[in-house]
Amino acid sequence: MALANRTVVGATSFAGARHIRDDTAKGLNMVIFGPPGCGKTTLAASIKEAQPDGQILLFDTDLGRESVEDLDVEYLLPTSWDELRSYLDLAISLREDSPYKTYIFDSLSSIYYEHLVPKVAGGELKRFELQHYLEAQRILAKFVRDAKSLREYGINTIFTAHQKEITDGTINVRLALPEGIRNEILLCVNHVGYLGRGKDNKTRELWFEPPTKRHEGPKIRQTRSKGTVPSVMPDPTMKKFLEALKKEK
User: Fold this and answer.
1) pTM listed for this prediction
2) Domain ranges (residues) in the chain
């Protein structure tokens, strides 16, 4: 299938997909969360620098594609949960025959609140009760686990998410999802990074361990070894992060 203007809308197959398989490494599976406008989508898409031969597909449910319009990123605009789920099922069925090396889901927060919750509630949020919350969380957790399975075929899956500030004497920053599903996702994915502004408010910093009293520490499971990957990465890029992971092995 020819992809016009780097946009695919309503695609039902990736016909003509080129074979991409890297038998030397598994794909990256990661969540990047932080405040609006800090560059989460741009950071995720910077993986192109490290893997120039791997095409990127952005699932844009948060209308954030403007930040990567100057990059070689193709994107889809899912209009419903069923459509988004069908795209993931297609990617899983293609496995290593997918034309894409990286899938970016932007963002978990909008996927949950704007697509999945209305789906479970039948479009009537006023009827959204406890059983609906639990069902929506179960479905989203399965979605994240299914996406993670693609790493076995050398395919990267990167999720972005918004942050939520909780004030209880100090300001704590958490991933903007209900507690149950937030904890399950943070424990499921391989890497979690908090992207925020540096002290000078000009540079960016990617945290892999919780900075004191800033965001939820116990649920942030990071790399297997802390000997190489720093707890905080100034001016982060995915190339820097992947290079640190390689040194760690």
Assistant:
1) 0.82
2) 4-186
CATH number (3.40.605.10, 3.40.50.300, 3.40.718.10, 3.40.50.2300) of 4-186 reads 3.40.50.300
CA 58 from centre of chain: 10
| Inter-CA distances, 118 with 74, 124, 125, 181, 187, Å | 27, 7, 7, 17, 26
The count of C-alpha atoms lying within 13 angstroms of the C-alpha of 54, restricted to the half-sphere facing its C-beta, is 27
Euclidean distance between CA atoms 213 and 107, whole angstroms: 24
Sequential pLDDT tens for the chain (249 residues): 333 334 444 444 555 444 444 444 789 999 999 988 889 999 999 999 999 989 999 999 987 777 777 778 899 999 999 999 999 999 999 999 999 999 999 999 999 988 998 888 876 655 667 787 889 999 999 999 999 999 999 999 999 999 887 665 555 778 889 888 888 888 889 888 899 887 777 789 998 865 444 444 434 444 444 456 778 899 999 999 998 888 765
Both tokens assigned to 68: 């990567």
Query: 3-state class of 53 per DSSP?
Result: coil
